[in-house]
Amino acid sequence: MSRNTADHKYGTLKKYFGYDGFRPGQEELIDALLAGRDVLGIMPTGAGKSICYQLPALLLPGITVVISPLISLMKDQVRALNEAGVHAAYINSSLSENQIRRAMEYACAGRYKIIYVAPERLLTPLFLDFAHRASISMVTVDEAHCISQWGQDFRPSYLNIVDFVEQLQVRPVVGAFTATATTQVRDDILCVLNLQDPKVMVTGFDRENLYFEVRTGNKDQNLRDCLREHEGESGIIYCATRKNVGTVCTSLLMDDIPATRYHAGLSPEERQANQDAFIFDERPVMVATNAFGMGIDKSNVRFVIHYNMPQSMENYYQEAGRAGRDGERADCILLYSPQDVRIGQFLLEEKELREDMTYEEAQAVRERDAQRLKQMTFYATTHDCLRGYILNYFGEKAPRRCENCSNCLQEFVEEDVTDICIDIIRCIKELKRGYGAGTVAGILHGSRVSKLLDWGLDQLESYGCQAEVSEPRLKEIIQELIAQGYLTTTPDKYALLGLTSQAETIPPRMIMKFSKPKEKVPAKTKKKRKSQSSELDSASWQLFERLRALRLKIAGEQRVPPYIVFTDKTLTDMCIKKPATREEMLEVSGVGEAKYRKYGERFLEELWKK
């Protein structure tokens, strides 16, 4: 790349986006696209994927078509680009045919550099006519995992992309981007999209600013504890069912917590109104099903709480990743109970599969979903590093301890459970048919519940052989044996236990970790974790709050979300650098020329107000 091109690249980054340099992986992907090479970028949420295609779009001669799955995602991206001084538009079902025609005419005339479009629109006669008349330099596939049948959000409409690119007279460069993709999904994207000599960049799945925690016990009490720790902050609470969304949201409103709700059962008008209330910080706490969030680019989400366990690690990490997009500290907390597994199994049983699937394909999908639920359950019950578990799941090596998850910060005691493990395996061998973990634990403990006695299970040799061990502890050990591959479970809702070949080779010593009982801490002594930059002293913190108030006022005047004006990270940088002139303000991270023209003077005034 020539020096002039490099200067132009950095100048464009500074002018429109307000940044002096690139984050890891961004520059390599941008350079590949500018050189005419296809790319696949797998970068965690908040790592700056959008700049990887938005900046080349400004430097390439023609139009960039960005294929995006959700209307809200397009609107958010286009609004942010226009605020930054980049002319962009979207084409989707929220526009009339006349508005769509006008947008495409403006694009052909060079008024727009970036056009966002839903995949369903690609093969319509109107859009194909536009595509043949326009000069398209790049096609970008956002949320590229949607093209894979093995991804967590497969959308058949994404298969239109391949036909669309093939119909263009001159093949543009193609970029594909996603945050969560296993090796299988990654290979699927490369194959289905037919990327040519692609530059593949996996920057890593780790989000160092996110704290991960699993809490067990009373969900409602745990939820209130979490919200007390994040008082006045914005966050999302995910529930597995619409009923839970309604119950939790009503409960929070009764406690005067400014919450709202979102699920597919609400009218489009109510969903939009509630989403806007959340984005504009009028109702900073959103209670929702997983129908919410894919198109939300809200940067100041300080916590994501899962009231119920999701059905897969892919879903969990994507949803949890909506916290802390500004790079500041944020918490991802899962409230787990064994009932969540049964809810997950029920939802998978009710899941509608595509009608054109063969019986074998449907069975493969069912088995895959059951395995994913099992992996998610292991995450919820493991005593090892939670971050390490996530990274290993996505094929990335991780240190043994991250020191920023509840397991790494929790005290554990190690116990020799060899005899218990041997008795568990002996009990399963002795049973004539499969039983669940609760029944096996009851047999070993010597439970007198009627069903065990009615079935004659008190006559087994293993009955009561571990009477001194509690049933919850026995079930905990059984779950760990499943996670380590000694036991298996059937994929149905009954999860009947079985033995693997590994069960024949139990090591001489089986050591497992168990949580050390926590000492009761009076509520008033619990400290709220700071989510903002620790670099701010008390005076700077007061300044930060003043700047936040100004931002909220401007956002109300402009009817844009506060984070579109400036992110919390940008306000923090202002408090640290305290710019006094235009030139100094432009050195603040996230302040580009367009935003300075709109807002810079008012923030300079506030910074130096007596």
Task: Describe this protein's structure.
- This protein has about 600 residues and is α/β, with parallel strands linked by helices.
- About 45% of the residues lie in helices and about 15% in strands.
Q: Which labels suit this protein?
A:
610 residues, alpha/beta, 25 helices
Question: What is the compact description of this entry?
Answer:
By secondary structure, this protein is of the alpha/beta class. The longest helix is centred in the middle third of the chain and has 23 residues, at 359-381. The model is unreliable at 520-532 (pLDDT under 50).
Could you give the topology of this structure?
Elements lengths: L2 H15 L8 H9 L4 E4 L6 H11 L3 E5 L3 H13 L4 E4 L5 H12 L5 E4 L7 H9 L2 E6 L18 H8 L5 E6 L4 H10 L6 E4 L7 E7 L2 H11 L4 E5 L3 H13 L4 E4 L5 H12 L5 E4 L12 E6 L6 H8 L9 E7 L2 H12 L8 H23 L4 H8 L12 H4 L2 E5 L1 H13 L6 H9 L4 H5 L16 H13 L3 E3 L7 E3 L11 E5 L22 H21 L3 H4 L2 H10 L4 H4 L7 H15 L3
Parallel strand pairs: 1-6, 1-7, 2-4, 2-5, 3-4, 5-6, 8-13, 9-11, 9-12, 10-11, 12-13
Antiparallel strand pairs: 14-17, 15-16
Helix pairs in contact: 1-3, 2-3, 5-6, 13-14, 17-18, 18-20, 21-23, 21-25
Question: What is the structural class?
Answer: alpha/beta
Radius of gyration: 27 Å
As a percent range, the share of helical residues equals 40-55%
Strand order of the largest sheet: 3-4-2-5-6-1-7
| Count of distinct strands | 17
**Roughly what is the average pLDDT, rounded to an integer?**
88
Count of helical segments? 25
Could you name the ranges where pLDDT drops below 50 across 5 or more consecutive residues?
520-532
Strand content: 5-15%
Main sheet makeup = 7 strands, parallel
Overall, the morphology is: globular
How far apart are the termini? 49 Å
